[in-house]
Amino acid sequence: MTIETADLKRMFDTIAEAIEADKDRLCQLDGVIGDADHGIAMALGFNAVRDALASLNLAVTEPTVLLNTAAKSFLNAVGASSGPLYATAFMRAGAAVKGKAALADADFIALFQAMAQGIKDRGKAEPGEKTMVDAWQPAAEAAAAASVAGKTLAQCLEAALAAAERGAEATKDMIAAKGRSSRLGERSLGHIDPGAASAVTAIGAMRKGLASDL
Amino acid sequence: MQTKKIINDGNRAVDEMLEGILAAHPRHLRSADGSPRSIIARDGPRPGKVGLVIGGGSGHEPTFLGFVGKGLADAAAIGNVFASPPPDPILECAKAVSGGGGVLFMYGNYAGDVMNFDMAAEMAAMDDIEVRTVLTTDDVASAPRDQRQKRRGVAGNFFIFKAAGAACDRMLSLDEVERIARKANDHTFTMGVALSPCSLPQTRRPNFEIGADEMEIGMGIHGEPGIARGKLGSADAITDEMLDKIFAEMAPKRGDKVAVLVNSLGSTPLMELYIMNRRVKQRLDDIGVSIHATWVGNYCTSLEMAGASVTLFHLDAELQTMLDHPCDCAMFRAG
């Protein structure tokens, strides 16, 4: 199955819709251990991406250009922590598929892994520090493993979503070591990391947005 | 239930505030061409002078943009409420204030700000602007003493920016400005206490819950939980608790000098701040530390949060000179 620029746009539109619907829950999660604005920032960012992509002529736009447009629009709408993290994810995704007019399944897996690595590099976070890396890294690993095992892209993204959900749930038992909540010490225990929670929503929407073609 | 606010549209709150600020302070402030979230001093940036760029999320007014003006910061990059600005407006500030002597970025130590300002610094380097960065870490409550570099920047920004801005205005080199900025940060100690939450204009929902008879010691200026929750004490007891923590770190000696900032987090009135300041004076008198200058009021707020912070700026001759250096900003004047 090939994924074209229009498919990626639909994927981003689906993420924007899902994050918008999840905005209040994400703000509430952030209110417990942070500053209560994570849902706002994520919705602002993905809505800006949706608007920026709507102005592209998809017929003549390569996936890399679309991903760079997503990066720039997300970053400039948001700032905050999620701005640089997701902007870096999209830029790395664009670099991973540079020069390709359409993506094969394996290309999309590479794109997905590049996103996770970009987030990890920009935030300088390791797994176990109660951040979105705790959802993104296992998701990328699960997608790659499923791909190596010969699964379809849909199955790979199912595996990624399941791993992200487990990873986000596991942040409840972690003491935050990065970001705003890191000053809470043990008071961050028992609460899910909002960045990991929104990663699950985004990954689920990526799966859904691409599903009709898979 | 939604909180009450005088706004038009939560999503437009920051930009409408900026419009109002530019309308009120045309003599001091302008926005950079094509970059409305980059607020530049009308008088200040000049050839050869190190440019001082500060910035961060909105909701802390008069921090940051109120401290833009001659003798203090040359520009402030403005983010959404409680969110770092993205790199572009920061870069536009750097370009607007660069006089060939380099640019210093100063802001509170928060993960988002660090990522965005670092990206802007990389972009400025591509434009041949030398950028250095000094993070403020004055919040004593936010990490143990041996991890000072992990602490948050809060109301003490006021003193740290003031010292750095004076060093810039006195045409010191980038090395010297950076040294003085770091020293000012090392000499600044803040403790805060929150009594009631604030709410973001977009959600209008209280950002934390707290009992009617409780206070949160060491709460951050974005409503981040502090180090402990306790029963609301008297003004003297609260002030003592803050000063005990500050003294333990600052290790003041008889004959030392400090500057004092008693700051409202938003809705705590001057009456209560002055009651606290009375106690600050008593305690400093008791240990033989003299007060060089005092500021009481809203300097670093957290929207409508109730609560206050106390900052001591431990002076030496050099820092005192920087503090006394005149400045003329939209929302602050000295000398």
Written description of the protein model:
The complex is a heterodimer of chains A (214) and B (335). By secondary structure, chain A is mostly helical. Chain A has helices at residues 5-33, 38-54, 63-78, 82-96, 105-123, 133-148, 153-170, 194-211. In chain A, helix 5 (105-123) packs antiparallel against helix 6. The mean pLDDT of chain A is 94. Chain B contains eight helices and 15 strands. Chain B has a six-stranded mixed β-sheet, sandwiched between helices. Chain B has a six-stranded mixed β-sheet with strand order 10-9-8-13-11-12. Chain B has a three-stranded antiparallel β-sheet with strand order 4-14-15, with helices on one face. In chain B, helix 2 (87-97) packs across helix 3, helix 4 (157-169) packs antiparallel against helix 5 and helix 4 packs across helix 8 (317-324). Chain A binds chain B through residues 24, 27, 31-37, 40-41, 44, 75-85, 122-123, 178-184, 187, and chain B through 57, 79-88, 110-112, 115-116, 119, 142-143, 150-152, 200, 202-203, 205, 207-208, 220, 222-225.
Tally of separate domains of chain A: 1
- Write down the Rg of chain A: 16 Å
- Helix/strand/pairing class of chain A, anyone? mainly alpha
CATH topology of chain A: Serine Threonine Protein Phosphatase 5, Tetratricopeptide repeat
Report the radius of gyration of chain B as a whole number of Å: 19 Å
Number of strands of chain A: 0
Q: Order of strands across the widest beta sheet of chain B? A: 1-2-5-3-6-7
Mean pLDDT of chain B: 96
CATH architectural grouping of chain A:
Alpha Horseshoe
> Could you name the CATH homologous superfamily of chain A?
DhaL domain
Show unreliable segments of chain B.
none
> What share of residues are in beta strands of chain A?
under 5%
The outline of chain A comes out as globular
| Quaternary structure classification | heterodimer
- Summed up, the domain count of chain B is 2
CATH domain topology of the largest domain in chain B: Rossmann fold
